[in-house]
TrEMBL record:
<feature type="region of interest" description="Disordered">
    <location>
        <begin position="1"/>
        <end position="60"/>
    </location>
</feature>
<feature type="compositionally biased region" description="Low complexity">
    <location>
        <begin position="9"/>
        <end position="25"/>
    </location>
</feature>
<keyword id="KW-1133">Transmembrane helix</keyword>
<keyword id="KW-0472">Membrane</keyword>
<protein>
    <recommendedName>
        <fullName>DUF4245 family protein</fullName>
    </recommendedName>
</protein>
<keyword id="KW-0812">Transmembrane</keyword>
<feature type="transmembrane region" description="Helical">
    <location>
        <begin position="70"/>
        <end position="91"/>
    </location>
</feature>
Amino acid sequence: MSQPPGPSPAGRAPAPARPSATDRASAADRARAGRGATPPGPRRPTDAVGASDRRHSRPASAAVYRRRRLVVLVGLLLVVGLVAALLAWVWPGFARADAAPQPAPTVTVTAEAPTPTLEPVARTGTSAFATALPDTVLDLVLRADPATEAWTPARALEAYELVYADGEGDDATTVTVVAGQWATVAEAETAAADLVAAAGEPTDTGDVEVAGERAGTYAVTPAGDGLATVTWRNGTAVLQATGPADVVTDVYAAYPL
């Protein structure tokens, strides 16, 4: 006769229940699935939210910069060499055998202004025009300055005959300058034209300029025996210089009036 189930003898705990066939199959499936899974690898920076891959953001090394500078320098040297070759062999071609020689620089030697060896005579004229006439011109010194009435018929207000010389005696170089003052430019212009016509056919004419402005005209006329006459007008003043042809033009150029 069977006994009903009850507590185990001597108070022992009941044995655990055996798993069923279904439970054993499920456990086997989970084990097989676990053996085939790939374990998780190390976490990369890009796996983090907001992280970036820094593997290609390292700064270039000093060697890279040196190589770059070397490349730039070599390029510049090549460009300079090419330009120099073009200048030497193409244009202007100074390295070619048939190149035209460079002209020698012009050297200008300025002679010192001649120094007068005489003392000018005392002036006789006292007007503003008379005192404006120079005592010396180049190496010529005033030897006389008498007033003259030669130009009075031409309505000159005043006129003076100035004699300049570079020494005493007959061997001295002498230039005579007659200078007159007129009341208006028109009267002075007419008087100058008459003097030029009376002197003869001029060989040289031009404008008299003062501070870049035209103030009158000049004319150079041969006078025979190696002499020449220069007649010029400067505003209301008219002047006429006569002397050696190779000196009188220099006197005109140096005369301050």
